[in-house]
Amino acid sequence: MSERIVILGSGESGTGAAILAKAKGFDVFVSDMGTIKEQYKKELVENAIAFEEGQHSEDKIVNATLIIKSPGIPDKAEIIKKVKAYHIEIIDEIEFAFRYIKGKVIAITGTNGKTTTTLLTYHLLKSAGVNVALAGNVGESLARKVATENHDWYVVEISSFQLDGTKTFRPSIAILLNITPDHLDRYEYQMQNYINSKFRLVQSMQSTDHFIYYNDGNVISKQIIERKISAKLHPINIDKNSDDEVMNFESVGDSFRLYQTKTTLRGIHNKINIMAAVGAARLAGVGINSIELALKDFKNAPHRLESVAIIEGVEFVNDSKATNVDSVVYGLGSYKGPLVWIAGGIDKGNNYKLIEDQVKEKVRVLICLGKENEKLKKAFGGIVKELYETQNVKELVEIALKVSKAGDVVLLSPACASFDLFKNYEDRGNQFREAVLQTKALVETDL
Question: Residue 67: which H helix or E strand, with range?
Fold first, then answer.
């Protein structure tokens, strides 16, 4: 009789794990408290994998030899408490996939910048002809990739929730971009718990592996001193007060320099992301000439400082992914001004003091896009020259164009969650993009 694996959660992560477990000959059962999406239900049926939805049947779960848990399920969930009472091993899909992987892994984490860095690292390797897969929080699950294809390298975006379920997961190259307060409700509101989660990235790494990290002079730098890390260390050092476009590389086996102006990414935060991705590509054996060429045609994921259009000399930028103040720091820091800044939504306990100086220096107009804007108005009403409110995206773009001058940047960088007016940050960004492009078409028709 084959060993029984129960998978809790049926999203991309859970379904990928189920497909891999089935391929490896396990007796597999998927259980989801919610409704299983049709695309995943179809896959489970096609692969003859038993499943349930709308409940967790304890008797079908606690007889497992291994539980693979969705990263979205917290440890305090009732079913997890019950499973733990039976002393069944609980891991994450990333850990499960790693146990069957044949290639090498580049794993990328951080509070902000993960997706950009992951996509760029993948692009640099792919452009150089490397047999590489993109997996994790961006693209398909690592388990699905391992189940269906063999690759020399796997570039994986990995969250703290996923890292919590790892034990033997060992990247050949690991990247840690930053650690700022986020998801603290999952970590008993203790910042150190969140930090510990991020540093699980390097727990199994050995002296032949490589750890690239941003030498922030604060959280990460302190942890590097206090922790015993076996991997070879490659710090990224940047002068935040400098407008210099030069990026010097001296810690990835050789010395060379690149220029941010010759890439498609702007802002100091993206300088960190570029240096991390380029460092990983070099350590994976990619040549500098290939890297320079690939940096010129990289297209980032949408909603991350995405330049949508220029209308009458005004650039409209979609940074809808910036759902916290730390992200807005990067957004504002990417432009010299003057800015028309669009912010608002559901406040997540924001401390606007963090961006007060930047707003004072660069923002001429603030447009509040949300149902409840009092906190934003109180924070910046006396700082910006003009302040407007709207709950309509079409009207938002009309206001922005009306108050802008040629050379201005209209920046949607909300600092807030989107659920008051939109389904999610993607919906907010998509509606903004569509409204901008419609306005551009109308303006050009009138010319």
Answer: strand 66-69
